Amino acid sequence: MDSSNVEQLCLDFTLPGHPQIELKPGGSSINVTGENRAEYLRRVVEVTLVEAVAPQLDAFRSAFKELLPVETCRIWSEQELAFIIVGSSVQEDSFWNMEHLSSKIKAQHGYTADSRCFTDLLTFLAGLSPDNRRNFLMFATGAPTLPLGGFGGLKPPLTVVKKEAPPAPLTPDDFMPSVMTCANYLKLPEYSSFEILKQKLDLAMREGQCAFLLS
Fold it and tell me: pTM score, two decimals?
């Protein structure tokens, strides 16, 4: 908008949506004009992103210092500290290749490392896009990222077990995979083909993001 038309917005120096919060002393009586609009925008950003969360950040800093001196964190860069706290990015391809997956994901209770359905699962995971990696992690672990060390950092490790076979005439292809996210425990039916496995996991990953059901 042209600076000469700012007055038409009828703004004053209060926080948008919160007229009781003044951006400067007497702000409710100060109109935003072409001359002071830069100051207005700067104060909106400062109040929203800094001052509004300052009490929470102070409380976090105080509690964090009881565990670790803040000065100690200076040995890490911002990116390294985020990696420690938040986990690895789903863009990190080294955690999604067959070598890493096969060495860090465990097969148990009906599956071995050589079971066809288990190796199909690893192949499926190795081919996921970053967005679908995130979807799988949310479905299988309840978190959108991997910890330090990738799948090797999960505690307990991600474990894949064979879901109990259904009574005839039903087959494993009729059932969905399920998980115990608190234990990183994936119960995978012994699907008849890679295509069926992919179809079922794609559906589970897409539809199982906002549900917490009995497994």
Answer: 0.69
pLDDT tens sequence across 30-68: 999 989 999 999 999 999 999 999 999 999 989 989 988
**In a shared domain, residues 98 and 172:** yes
From 10, 117, 182, 210, active-site residue: 182
Does 210 participate in catalysis according to the annotation? no
Closest by alpha carbon to 48, among 78, 13, 24, 23? Answer: 23
Flag whether pLDDT at 131 surpasses 90: yes
Domain extent for 149: 93-207
